[in-house]
Specification:
alpha/beta; 7-stranded parallel sheet; 24% strand; elongated
């Protein structure tokens, strides 16, 4: 039977006894109903995983005894994918973050767009990022990933494009648009070194936003004959990329 998994912030030291915070205690004891002696896997979200045993420390506090480091499971995607996602209402973005983590995204960059109608004060932007990081961590725990995707604070589109890593050889930057002349998988046989997708809001990208994206190397592509909602489009194109070039076809 597959062992239960729990995220623990680094550092995780083999042979140490790690007291549980209340959310972790609640998850293991009250949700999963695990007893003392239960074996599980803890991971730090950065590629490390360790065996652990549930119990109590000398004071009687719920704790984990950390065991040996475990080998890489191979559950993290080999193809780096960055998702530039226009902001929409909270529940939709939460769902995108969770499902994109499962499918295999590396970085999620939420952006403000002209037609997105979402505005956040600085303090609320930080709160949203914390929430998205928690959602991504929970999804990584569930699906077996060892690395948690990076979720940035929401940024204006121009700032987000400026902050993108420098393009590498073989990278594809794709802006999804139903009016684009070329289909998404026009180069299905060419494996990219990295993919960067731009997913617009329900009203689509403006012409000015498309021209801005073009200056940063994005090419418009259409994705099928139907117009997808913003929360659907990003997940659909991630899954398609995973089948064409990643590990979802394995």
């Amino acid at each position: 039977m597959r062992r239960r998994r729990l995220f623990l912030p680094a550092p995780i030291v083999p042979g140490s006894v790690r007291p549980l915070d209340e959310p972790s205690r609640h998850y293991l004891r009250d949700v999963l109903r695990l007893d003392d002696g239960a074996e599980l896997v803890v991971f730090d979200g950065a590629g490390g995983a360790w065996a652990a045993c549930l119990g109590r420390d000398q004071s009687g506090t719920h704790a984990l005894t950390i065991g040996a480091r475990l080998p890489d499971t191979g559950a993290d995607p080999a193809l780096p994918i960055v998702l530039v996602q226009a902001l929409t209402h909270t529940r939709s973005i939460d769902e995108v973050v969770a499902r994109a983590t499962e499918i295999g995204v590396e970085t999620i960059i939420p952006v403000f767009s002209a037609r997105g109608r979402i505005r956040l004060a600085a303090e609320h932007a930080g709160h949203r990022r914390s929430r998205w990081c928690a959602v991504a961590t929970s999804a990584a725990r569930q699906c077996g990933r060892m690395r948690v995707p990076n979720c940035t604070e929401p940024l204006p589109l121009a700032h987000a494009l400026t902050a993108l890593p420098a393009a590498v050889h073989g990278e594809h930057r794709i802006l999804l648009s139903p009016e684009a002349p070329r289909p998404f998988a026009a180069e299905a046989l060419e494996t990219p070194s990295r993919l960067v997708f731009m997913i617009g809001p329900e009203g689509g990208w403006t012409q000015e936003e498309k021209e801005l994206a073009a200056r940063y190397g994005f090419e418009p592509r259409r994705f099928g004959p139907r117009i997808l909602r913003t929360g659907t489009a990003g997940l659909a194109v991630l899954a398609a990329a995973g089948v064409l070039w990643g590990d979802l076809g394995d």
